[in-house]
UniProtKB/TrEMBL annotation:
Listed name of the protein: Proteasome subunit beta
Major subcellular location class: cytoplasm
Keywords associated with the record: Cytoplasm, Hydrolase, Nucleus, Protease, Proteasome, Threonine protease
Keyword Nuclease: no
Similarity annotation: Belongs to the peptidase T1B family.
Length: 264
């Protein structure tokens, strides 16, 4: 009882509701999920709120991630600072995660939530590929992720992922934790996104060369980290084409070079 008083635990009435959705739109076969996530998620409805234990204080967090399409493919960029209020929790966090050889996601929101759902997405896509012999398309992947996240709308979960990849052409889709799904040519997400959009709106165009696109993405994230206290440290850059994704490292006063790639 003493522990319950200290931790502010209270008995809550719990009701279970189940969520299901139809087969994915552009998948030829209904998508079978793994046994643990069999297209159904239980959602907890409480008489008070969705947060069991109130936090002693709110830890604000922020980031700067972006993705855009140009004639040479898709560019994804993000800073590497993980923040918790005024604390820099980690200066070297990778906010761009490869899902498969032609798809990466940029993540913003709660670090633990983003890592969990990225792992779930990687597993489900891999299982689909093993069952059917081909990869799930980017649009179907976004629909799958949106359908899995929608039951958690209104909870404390905070996930915002931008899918940057290549199927038969470039693909850029934004999915967040309330189930929203948006497709576009440019997205910037996070507390530093207004500053990044300021640079992108001025310089972004379809006819950019590879070098110009990489420099623009780096400049946009750098300017955002300069103005936004929650973003900072280094800039991660990915370039996705029909051959796969490439991690790009830019040396000061030297041309960019390829560090690592994943191709067929």
């Amino acid at each position: 009882m003493a522990l319950e008083d200290v931790c502010s635990f209270k008995e809550r009435s719990v009701q279970h509701k189940w969520f299901s959705f139809s087969s994915l739109g552009d998948a030829a076969i209904p998508f079978p999920m793994s046994d643990h996530y069999n297209l159904r998620y239980s959602r907890l409805e409480t008489s008070e709120n969705n947060c069991g234990v109130p936090l002693p204080f709110r830890l604000a967090h922020g980031t700067t991630t972006l993705g855009f399409i140009f004639q040479g493919g898709v560019i994804a960029a993000a800073d590497t600072r993980a923040s918790a209020g005024g604390l820099v929790a980690c200066p070297a966090v990778h906010k761009i995660t490869p899902i498969h050889s032609h798809l990466v996601v940029t993540s913003s929101g709660s670090g633990a939530d983003c890592m969990l759902w990225e792992r779930i997405l990687i597993r489900e896509i891999r299982l689909y590929q093993l069952r059917h012999g081909h990869r799930l398309s980017i649009r179907a992947t976004a629909k799958l992720l949106s359908s899995m996240l929608h039951p958690f709308k209104g909870t404390e979960m905070c996930v915002a992922l931008t899918l940057c990849g290549w199927d038969k052409q470039e693909g850029l889709i934004y999915v967040c934790s309330d189930g929203a799904r948006l497709q576009g040519d440019v997205f910037s997400v996070g507390s530093g996104s207004p500053y990044a959009y300021g640079v992108l709106d001025r310089e972004l165009r379809w006819s950019l060369s590879k070098g110009e696109a990489i420099s623009l993405a780096r400049e946009a994230v750098f300017r955002a980290t300069h103005r936004d206290a929650y973003s900072g440290n280094n800039v991660d850059l990915f370039h996705i084409t029909a051959q796969g994704w490439i991690i790009v490292v830019i040396w000061y006063k030297k041309p960019h070079k390829q560090l690592y790639s994943c191709r067929n």
